[in-house]
Amino acid sequence: MNSQIIGWDVGGAHLKAALLAPNGTLKQVLQVPCPLWRGLHELEVAIDMVMNAFRVSSALHAVTMTGELVDLFANRREGVLAISRIMQTKLNCAPNLNCLKFYTGVLNPALNSNLNPNLFRPLSVTGFVSFDEVEDYWPFIASANWQASASFVAQKIECGLFVDIGSTTTDFVLLENNMPACIGFTDATRMQSDELVYTGVVRTPLMAVTQKIEFKQEMTSVAAEFFATSADVYRLTGDLSSEDDMADTADAQDKSQLASARRIARMIGHDVEDATILDWHSLAEQFKLQQILRLQTIAKKHFSRLDYKNNKQTIVLIGSGAGGFLVAEIAKKLAIPYINVADLIVLKTENTELQINDIDSNTIAVRRQASVCLPAYALAYLAQQFFENQQH
User: Fold this and answer.
1) SS3 content of the chain, % helix, strand, coil (to 5)
2) Which of 90, 150, 181, 368 maximizes the CB count within 10 A of its CB?
3) pLDDT computed for residue 389 by the predictor
């Protein structure tokens, strides 16, 4: 390989990108706001921000997306085609060139029985298609980013449960024999199987976390109003890093401790002045606990699919995303070994792999950001394998 590779994950609220050197070295990872529901110009601006930061004159590009789900589009097909056109135009990749590929994940015939059977590849094969093939393959391109992450992790982990907690959603993927053991492939089927759960650590309205909450040793109802989000909770608990805190607040006010406390106080019919800041910190911890308990219950459900008695493989819980800190706490509660996906990301110099003692703080920060933006990094990683295979 003599080309750099950029993996792109086009979300509905953020654009994430990871840049790999020709030898696979992770060079840079970036997440920028992209409120796609406001219009396609938001994606154009976000792409420019990434390309200006990466400062690359030429590269191979691989794209995955979930942004087709935003209500800017009448349906997912329209969204996939529109986003693909923007990526092709902005990245200056002519349709007949091989510098831009769109990720199809695992091509499962069960996704759409009306499609041409010649489109399908074996389930163990992940695929990339060119821009002029997007219209044929759009059902597989739509919301396939979780498959990139799962395929990367499965190459490193033999058996366990991979949990990626983002700003809005949580992905659960069971791993067996270095393969994802998925029940569903579409958003609809994954929501039925609890492999896709709409809860995250930034954008989730608190009314969706629980209907009852403990405050000052009394149970109280939670308002069914968009007064506060999970980001308010994790600002108060100190778990949410500023670089992951990009979404607007519910009241469009600032993200200070006081403003966050004011918003969660409204969730239980209070003003912030009704109690101390310590009381609001305690309420935030209660919301955190409720989110953990829900995710823990789902994790146990997926682990129950493993045959523990006959399974001689070491079972682990692997966490990634802005909410990876919750996965670590769930692992502790379940007494299951925990692996931060950042530790699976191999770092290289031009000639050799870096030893852990040689990693400086900047490199650690980049690897941590790659774990938060895992689909983008994983896609670049898989794309490098794909492009290398094409050359042989």
Assistant:
1) 45, 20, 35
2) 150
3) 78
Domains of the chain: 5-145+354-391 (3.30.420.40), 219-285 (no CATH)
pLDDT bucket at 123, cuts 50 / 70 / 90: very low
Q: What is the C-alpha separation between 208 and 290, in angstroms, rounded? A: 11
Give residue for tokens 């589009």: 73
Rg of the chain over all Cα atoms, to the nearest angstrom: 21
Q: Which residues pair with 106 in a beta bridge?
A: 126
Mean pLDDT computed over 99-110 = 79
- Which ranges of the chain does DSSP label H, i.e. alpha helix? 41-54, 76-90, 134-141, 145-156, 187-192, 230-237, 257-266, 277-303, 324-334, 361-372, 374-391
DSSP letters, 53-102, are HHT-SS-EEEEEESGGGSTTSSSHHHHHHHHHHHHHHHTT--TTSSSEEE
61/325 Cα distance (integer angstroms): 30
Q: What is the mean pLDDT of residues 286-297?
A: 98
CA separation for the pair 293, 306 (Å, rounded): 21
Question: Exposure pattern of 352-381 as b/e (b: 16+ CB <10 Å)?
Answer: eeeeeeeeeeeeeebbbbbbbbbbbbbbbb
Ramachandran assignment for 39, one of left (phi > 0), alpha (psi -120 to 50 degrees), beta (any other):
left
Mean pLDDT, rounded, of the chain = 90
Residue 348: pLDDT band by 50, 70, 90 thresholds?
low
- CA 218 from chain centre, in angstroms, equals 36
Phi, psi of 284 (to 5 degrees): -60, -40
- The answer to whether residues 377 and 29 touch, using CB atoms and an 8 Å cutoff, is yes
How far is it, in rounded angstroms, from Cα 205 to Cα 210?
10
In this predicted structure, what is the pLDDT of residue 113? Answer: 47
The phi, psi pair for 61, rounded to 5°, reads: -125, 140
Kindly tell me if the per-residue pLDDT of 72 is higher than 80: yes
